[in-house]
Design a protein that fits this description.
The chain has 77 residues and is mostly beta strands. The chain has one domain: 3-layer Sandwich (Rieske Iron-sulfur Protein). 0% of the residues lie in helices and 31% in strands. It is built from no helices and five strands. A hairpin with a 2-residue loop joins β1 and β2. It is globular. The termini are far apart.
C-alpha cells in the first residue's frame, strides 16, 4: 500500500484573518495559485477557485445545507 504524503501550506496565523464573505467562502493564494477556503459548521476546507465544468468563481457560489460548495453558474456541487 502506498502512503499518502500531504504538503501543508500556511495561509494565515488565525482563521479570522482569511476574510470570509457572508457565504462563508474566502479566497487565498498559495504559491501564486488562488484557492477557496470554505467554512461549514466546525469544518474548514479548501476547494478549487474555478469550477472545472463552467469556469465559475467558486467564491461567488454558496455552501448548501450538506456542506457542499455550489458553483454560482450551474449549481454543480
Amino acid at each position: 500500500m502506498t502512503e499518502k504524503k500531504y504538503i501543508w501550506h500556511k495561509i494565515a496565523d488565525h482563521i479570522n484573518e482569511l476574510g470570509f464573505a457572508d457565504n462563508n467562502i474566502a479566497v487565498a493564494e498559495v504559491k501564486g495559485k488562488k484557492i477557496c477556503i470554505a467554512k461549514f459548521k466546525d469544518d474548514v476546507f479548501a476547494v478549487a477557485y474555478k469550477c472545472t465544468h463552467a469556469g465559475g468563481i467558486m467564491a461567488d457560489g454558496y455552501i448548501d445545507a450538506l456542506g457542499n460548495v455550489v458553483c454560482p453558474l450551474h449549481r454543480y456541487k
